[in-house]
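forwarding from the other thread:

> can someone predict this with zinc ion?

sure thing
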Amino acid sequence: MGRRKRERTPPDAPGPRPARRREAVSRLLTGCGEFVSARQLHALAVLQEVDVSLTTVYRALNELEEQGCADVVLDGNGERLYRPRTAGEHRHYLLCRDCGVSRVLDAAVVETWTERVGEETGFAALEHLVQLSGICGPCQSTDPAGRAPGATAGE
Ligand SMILES: [Zn+2]
Ligand SMILES: [Zn+2]
């Protein structure tokens, strides 16, 4: 066993402490309103001259998720997108794969089903990740693939 060093935070610790950086990330996330990736949030931090690394952003988002302070969805590429959770309970979302706009869903049926699965299987502390994705109305009318009828081919 090595020497046990007691973790002491000196009053004039250099640089912002982890908790403060997490707070900063949390504030940035709250300011976004929509789902954002860690990369997008880090880009925002750079813009606003908030001194956090991408690694810190990833870690902070992870912690926020674990603490139930953020909702998470996966985008089309499997990247995690985060949004601050305002209500006490987690929510389920419908996400546009084109523009990323999101809507909160009434997913009481998912919660009921989860509870029932727990009762039937004897499993405790069940977790679930349920999300729907599609193409929102505005994105359907501005189809970037140019498949709209009457579009002239440029070749
Ligand atoms: Zn859309
Ligand atoms: Zn749920």
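Residues 96, 98-99, 101, 136, 138-139 surround zinc ion (ligand 1) (CB under 6 Å). thats all i got for now
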